[in-house]
Give the backbone structure.
Amino acid sequence: MRPIHVGLLGLGTVGGGIFKVLQRNQEEIRRRAGRGIEIRKAAVRDAEKARRLVAGTNVAITQDAYEVVRDPDVEIVVELIGGTDLARELVMAAIDNGKHVVTANKALLALHGNEVFAAAQKRGVMVAFEAAVAGGIPIIKALREGLTANRIEWIAGIINGTSNFILSQMRDRGAGFHEVLAEAQQRGYAEADPTFDIEGIDAAHKLTILAAIGFGIPMQFERAYTEGIAKLTRQDIRYADQLGYRIKLLGIARRTPEGIELRVHPTLIPHRRLIANVEGVMNAVLVKGDAVGSTLYYGAGAGAEPTASAVVADLVDVTRLHTADPESRVPHLAFQPDSLSDVPVLPMEAVRTAYYLRLRVLDRPGVLADITRILADRSISIDAMLQKEPDEGEEQVDIIMLTHVALERNVNDAIARIQELPTNLAPVTRIRLEELGS
């Protein structure tokens, strides 16, 4: 059987990794897929550089991306250009021309996935996107196929390597946020504009995709709560450590009787949890199913060949099912398109979780009683407390509290009330806390 023909939109870091993996493992891939997989055309900005990479092969190089998506010889289009506007146009054009699509573009899917999947369903083609979440970790396949017998209860993931590197370095070295961010940029872990990483937007794109597959809901990125790590201090990381916790930027999706929680924010996790010990640029996703219990998926969340591993795996899957009846294929979001749920995504104020609160107050009698009264009036109970001794000659003291599970709306109200106390000297620091137990 002749090889299936692939067109690449982009031949940069990831595209080059895909080319190398396909070349290196071509015989193994052919044995798995049942036929060869060959790159026939690639659209690039730097044609000269691309030609040097593919020298000695039959890969045609063009600077016109539409030439790839309209080429009748190309059967699968791999989109690697990133962004949402041009990428959306090209993906929709590829689908309209009857091409299967493989993409690593989490922003495209989080924002336009509903439209993309509907078009693919109508045209009878596949859109595969394993590389869009957690790089080389096969979390999409695990959720969409491996855990299909389960009712997914919650998903919690470290799904942005840049933020995890920053938090790991702040904890290990006691360094400040801006110092470590500059180091991450020097090492190539963070972009010149790191906003998407440090503000949690990149993680929210990925969490949107995981929640859609896990719970059978449409993509709803606009309803995800997003909070980044830029305001975290060495002080809070140290206090959390003393209390037996580590702080990670987590994406959390949880099914509740009221609706779906969809949130990204810094989170205290007990240090004994495996996911709390994921360091550096590595990613990890914890999934709780009703039958299987908790399962953990760990690995490289970025990089040329880890991402290429996921893209090529998608190419193998598409190749296997290329001639299959569309009705026999695994649905894009694991659930049949006409069976997606309209269960609501909860606003953040309706979420229930536990909290770490750090207060800077005057060291006077009655201060703690005032604070605990405010919390009690709002049904917020204290699980643990740490009060630091004031420095010599100082009249200010830090009080750190861990609460039991409480309603976010009540915690917001309590914080506002505490900050009105004349004995309160600084804005209250609030970090959410998750036990992530079974």
